[in-house]
Amino acid sequence: MTAMGLVHDTALPVRTGRGTLRRVLGAIPIVVFGLYVVAGLFGPLVVDYTPVEGDLDDRLLSPGSVLTDGSTALFGTDALGRDLFGQVLYGARTSVIIGALVVLFSGLVGIAVGSAAGYLRGTTDVVVSRVIDVLLAFPGILLAIVIAGVFDRSLAIVVIALSVTNWIGFARLSRSMTMSLREREWVKSATVMGIRRRRVVTRHILPFIAGPTLALATIEFAGAILAEAALSFLGLGLPAASVSWGQTIASGKEYLASAWWISAIPGIALAVLVICVGFTGDRLTRHFGRRQ
Amino acid sequence: MLPQLARRLGLMVFTVWGALSLTFVILRIAPGDQATVQLGPEATAADVAALRTELGLDRPVFLQYLDYLGSAVTGDFGESYRFHDSAMTVILDRFPATVVLALSATVLALTVGLLLGVLAGRSPGRLTDRVISGCTLVMQAIPPFWSGIMLILLMALTLRLLPSAGSGDLEHLVLPAVTLAIPFTALVARITRSSVAEVTSEPYIQTARSKGLSERAVLTRHAVRNSVIPVVTMVSLHIGTLMGGAVIVEQVFAWEGVGSLLVSAVGNRDYAIVQGATVLIAIIVVTMNLLADLVNARLDPRIRAGVTS
């Protein structure tokens, strides 16, 4: 399956000019992405929200309504009277944490497998390529659905289910880069000097893979967040007690006619995050100069 | 071409075997086998043991695996305990709906995506390009389950133009097909854009222009034809993504296809259906990839000759 090679979206140089404005505009996605991370990590410390408690008098209030306890529900409330703003904030934490865990886990596995295949070549490479072929026969989300569905719901299972196909991108990238890097002068010199293989890979090859891998990690992070939301939308994500955007979107589907905001707002939050992460990833990809 | 094709077919068989085995392993290591799931928590140990014997679950795992492979080859994935029918029959019953959905989404995405991509790619950096690129970025970022719900809100609940859920006739097809097509259209547009932009800077386009061909002729006859190759490759690599998207979109719109069947089967732990549907989808993906490579070979003589550029 890998024989024909991949054709990637190559970013063409855009005409320069009006530099400062462009730079400010270009920084927006990165800042917004940062805000999500900060909101996800520290928001729950500031905003008090309990997923189980809600005042039934406050059911299905539209965004901006005042609740019975005197506070304002910025994003409205859901069918159980729970504040939607809190849900979005806690959902951001779930997304950011799961996205980061998936990228970390699959990145480590992918780099290890990919660089081994690219450096050792031969049988290792063939085995790795065949395993990837088999995994690519399944739509990523399909394997995630099956794995998350048949095992008991937990954070670990969600991370594993999403990593099963996520590592492939990292493996392919580090494999192809290792293959070309191992022919470079400094790597050959190191090998001739009798430096151990593991050390050659970690000291003389991996540092050069780091940049493009970071760019890829950003893009995979966005993918992981989308996939997590899809899983929890289907009711196969984290245990029901935790808050996740997908879950909130699914719960709002019933009340679409009377309370559109329950489904709409978390989806917007999700899309904005994915767009900003995507922009950041594109910037990083361009920065590291590799047409990926 | 022939030895290449034979090699590809061999790899395909291997991949399908791998897919079969992977599914087997996942369902094997899942907590609770089919017998315990089927009888529920109230069943006595004796009942469970009896059913386990009946289903052959008490035999050595390796024998079960061989058995499973043997019957899978003939398309037999066992009986669904929910439908009281052969799993394959249930799946094939739902299969046409998924094909209709996936095909209409593909046609929609290819038409709109190619158009947008050519429009954007022939003048990179200009306003048209900026607008289209911006739109495609957003289209790729919205999750299909959310855009589906928003389409229901707009088209079914607010404007009351289309039904919100169900399957069957054309009316029911529109919203799921559009939902499924959104990210795919963006993908096609983005690849077409960069491909057209790259091709238009090639010397042979200069030649075509300088010999006095109209811009339209240059674009359609020389540029687009050559930009289609990466589009076909990329689209075929994303057939899996499309099938995955179909699983979710079917669930949103209660479209009675293999996807929604699979999701409910996972929820009910109806393992026969889960195995059958997963393997079927894997086979479709692998076959489509092979077909796309063949189409590519027809389009690009360099590939046909086995030359790597």
Automatic annotation (TrEMBL), chain A:
It comes from Prauserella cavernicola. Pfam families: BPD_transp_1. The lineage of its organism: Bacteria, Bacillati, Actinomycetota, Actinomycetes, Pseudonocardiales. The chain crosses the membrane at residues 24-47, 96-120, 132-151, 157-174, 205-238, 258-281. Keywords: Cell membrane, Membrane, Transmembrane, Transmembrane helix, Transport. GO terms for cellular component: plasma membrane. Belongs to the binding-protein-dependent transport system permease family. InterPro entries: BP-dependent_transpt_permease, MetI-like, MetI-like_sf. It is a multi-pass membrane protein. GO terms for biological process: transmembrane transport. This is ABC transporter permease. The keyword Transmembrane helix applies. It is found in: Cell membrane. It comes from the Bacteria. Residues 92-281 form the ABC transmembrane type-1 domain. The keyword Transferase does not apply.
Automatic annotation (TrEMBL), chain B:
It is a multi-pass membrane protein. It holds the Pfam family BPD_transp_1. InterPro entries: BPD_transp_1_N, MetI-like, MetI-like_sf. The chain crosses the membrane at residues 9-30, 95-120, 141-161, 173-191, 228-253, 273-295. One of its GO terms (biological process) is transmembrane transport. The keyword Transmembrane applies. The keyword Transport applies. GO terms for cellular component: plasma membrane. PROSITE patterns: ABC_TM1. The lineage of its organism: Bacteria, Bacillati, Actinomycetota, Actinomycetes, Pseudonocardiales. This is ABC transporter permease. Coiled coil: none annotated. Residues 95-292 form the ABC transmembrane type-1 domain. It is found in: Cell membrane. Its main location: membrane. Belongs to the binding-protein-dependent transport system permease family. Keywords: Cell membrane, Membrane, Transmembrane, Transmembrane helix, Transport.
